[in-house]
Amino acid sequence: MIAMKKNIILFVILLAVMQLQAQPDLKVDALRVEGLQEPLGIDRGNPRFSWKITSAGRNVHQRSYRILVASSPDKLARKSGDIWDSGVVPADQSLDVLYAGKPLASFKKYYWTVEVKSNHGGAVWSRPATWSMGLRDPALWKASWIGINGHRKEDQVDSVFTRLSARYLRKEATLSKPVKRATAYIAGLGLYELYVNGKKAGNAVLAPTTAEYDKRVVYNAIDITAQLKQGRNALGVILGNGRYFMMRNYQGKPDPLTGIPQANYGYPCLLVQVQVEYTDGSTAQIVSDQQWKVTDNGPVIANSEYDGEDYDARKNLNGWAMPGYADQSWKTPDIMPTPAPVVEAQPNEPIVVKQKLTPVALHRTASGSWILDMGQNMVGWVAIRVKGKAGDTVTLRFSEKLKTKDSLYTDNLRNARATDNYVIGGNGWENWEPRFTYHGFRYVEVKGLQYVPDASQFTGKIVYDDIATTGWFSSSDSTMNAVFRNAYWTIRGNYRGMPTDCPQRDERTGWLGDRVMSSYGESFVFDNARLYAKWLQDIADAQLENGSIPDIVPSFWKRYADNVTYPSAFILIPDMLRRQYGDQESFRRFYPAMRKWMAYMWNTYNEQDLVLKDNYGDWCVPPESLDLIWSKDSTRVTEGGLLASAYFYHCSRLMENYARLLHNETDVQYFSGIADRVKSAFNKRYYNPQKQQYANNTITANLLPLSFGMVPENDRAVLFTRIVDKLKTADNHVTTGIIGGMWMMRGLSDNGRTDLALQLATNTTYPSWGYMVGQGATTIWELWNGDAANPMMNSGNHQMLLGDLLVWYYEYLAGIKTDQKLTGFKKVVMRPEFPAGLKQVSAYLDSRYGKIASAWKKQDGQISWTVTIPPNTTAALDIPGNAATIRESGKLIAGQQTFTTSRVSDTVTRVEIGSGTYQFTVANP
Description:
Blueprint: E1 13-19, E2 31-32, E3 48-54, E4 62-70, H1 73-77, E5 84-85, E6 97-98, E7 109-118, E8 123-125, E9 129-132, E10 146-147, E11 167-175, E12 179-189, E13 191-196, E14 199-200, E15 216-223, E16 231-240, E17 269-278, E18 283-287, E19 293-295, E20 300-304, E21 308-312, E22 334-335, E23 342-345, E24 351-357, E25 361-364, E26 370-386, E27 393-399, E28 401-404, E29 407-409, E30 419-423, E31 430-432, E32 439-447, E33 458-465, E34 471-475, H2 478-493, H3 518-522, H4 529-542, H5 569-581, H6 586-605, E35 606-607, E36 610-611, H7 640-661, H8 665-686, E37 687-688, E38 693-694, H9 699-708, H10 716-729, H11 738-741, H12 744-750, H13 754-762, H14 769-774, H15 805-814, E39 817-818, E40 827-830, E41 840-846, E42 851-859, E43 862-869, E44 874-880, E45 887-888, E46 891-892, E47 900-905, E48 908-913, E49 916-923
Parallel strand pairs: 1-3, 15-23, 21-30, 40-44
Antiparallel strand pairs: 1-2, 3-6, 4-5, 4-7, 7-8, 7-9, 10-17, 10-22, 11-16, 11-19, 12-15, 12-17, 13-14, 13-16, 17-18, 20-21, 24-33, 25-26, 26-31, 26-32, 26-33, 27-30, 27-32, 28-29, 34-41, 35-36, 37-38, 39-40, 41-42, 42-43, 43-49, 44-48, 45-46, 45-49, 47-48
Helix pairs in contact: 4-5, 4-6, 6-7, 7-8, 7-9, 9-10, 12-13, 12-15
């Protein structure tokens, strides 16, 4: 029986969207469950309820709420909260209200609504919503892990390029009564597709999400009520390799290219339990066991996320997931080893097909093949419609760019083959797409067609986690807009149940260092809260007993190097979640593991009060020559010990704050003491008071202590001039790697040089984001010189070079930033910069409270600024000018009761506002 950790609280967010108007006759909009494709399978504790209020009125805020949870829709309709009635709670809290009702039962479906009263009078009930509980007790699992604990000769698993065919499993079951509700709880490793009576269940692809498989695996809950019927039914499951079965086989040795060992967890395996509730209230179960049948002789003859999928339509198992299929030749499945001690409901969104593209061009090569241009570097696969003779093979090879007009550039894929093969069955037009692979590509070479194809016969399917796009940015500068679009495509292309580094080559892993600050910028564009909260669990699962954290999580590549900067993501990301989403639980939940890592690094690597352990330096400093990967110029390279010790100081201050929020005064003093000691030792070792610079005076060497508050106060201004001077010697172009780049744009603006930040953002010559755009890039490169560097490391789809650019776009240009105490945008702080050379900026963010928008324009000597603030929040706006010159909707704000104003300086006025849309105008300074 599977052992599961009990009493672990999962703060699943249930979101009610309500429409509130300024008048008492309030109306209700839709109610949904935030983040989850379907609110099924909550199993780790009590849910937390959230709702969103929308209103066109001004200064709308909640005065009280009342939550009802009922066991049936009828009871809820009668306003009978037989499971929980919170009573009227006089509070403006609308996020993360903890359930406090009767114990919630496994498999049970619940119905809920919330009543809100606002300061405008009246009350409104949200439209009812539902959720259901999963398996809260491990004893409820009656299913066994099954599969084939071995492989065929044809699978060639002893080869470096492992080939393993998919497993097909099926079982028939008779249901004796009419079905009221049926839910499949399924964990298929590494990847699965579930079929019920011949039809796929659910819309997820590449399911389930990734995990540290020897510590934890997840199951999905899928509603299959509409697919089951009284009488005979059939369940079918196809299992692919995913990241569970070895991606490469080096016979226990490290990858010869990277020197890093790679994980192999075992052969694909299945755990599934279908919970059936009949209309008379009785129940039945269908579980995975040795009553199932299995074969590995189906049409998916090979699958690998690196290499692609091979499908032989001549081997189609027609009707295999339907009742009555003749499966006598299939085998009895093996009982498989239990993968992990914890099996739990997937906490993050599933991967789905989010968009489809048709090729923008179709070109015939001299050799007779066809090259498709999708018009955009994308992540997913191509669905095809083809015909031919039985046994003809259609081959699709994928690449991000072309070598010549007739050939793909695949050198940067390293040893990923990125090739799909479809063997035609010979039955007229045939439709096919892969199940268990994905590719990063813009171009596709198609071989094997004996006719002239049409572009409509190829559909690019873009896949990533089913998270909402919550923000967008535009400006009067076309380069900045193009960079933002490229960032958007890059970020979503690298969401694969974990934040990956790249989607195309033989890597596709979760490097922690890439997301230390990028996760923050991403949160303005995508609702990535559950993805990163889940990734924190992966990091905690990957942590060794001694406290060590790897640089890559999940640890499909085993890289425990005890670096400081990369694992610091474990300390910084909870702060991002706290600030951007009001998540008060992630840092609480993972605090013990975070503290364990800090103590391990301090106790193991402390050298005279400094933790100097570093392995990567300021990764990807722009090299002096386009053909280099790493700079050979020592004046550009920052000492690794400085990076490590500066980041350890920053982490110590964050831990001090977490301890303060947890009311752990002992740890407040502990981390405060460490930070003070590190700061003193750091300045003693690296700061030259005569030259007023750190170490060898690189921008990163000076920028980190300046950003982290380590610089002697009287020397800050002079130190910043060192940064400005260094930029000038580089013709005001990027000179930092990813570590310094995480603070570059904000560091310039915080010290009064937004003009320099704007120049970095709009440059079009090497090295710059605009240079990538000018070279035709539609995503962000791994290297600033990704068009010319060695193919060992020139991915065309990497987000790490974004640094803090998106944060700067939003917080500094658009002026959309959360208050540090009233987090999650409960209070919005809006202090936009209006730099010369930029005429217009427009941005929005759909926060957990609602849509925040900021749009300003310079015209006719004035700045017009339109601001939208959602209900139940407030905002503080810093506007250039004084109250006697600032107008809102044409009226001077001075003396208006709608606003609270205060003087920030001789040239800036602070205006405090509530919800609503406002139009300010002021003379352009």
